[in-house]
Amino acid sequence: MQLEVYQWLVPLIAAIFIIRTLRQYGRFRRTLRGTVLWILFWITITVLAILPDFISRILASSFGFKDNVNAIIFVALGGIYIFVFYLSASIRRTEGLVTDLVRELAKEKQRMESDS
Question: Where are the domains of the chain?
Answer without folding.
Answer: 1-50, 67-116
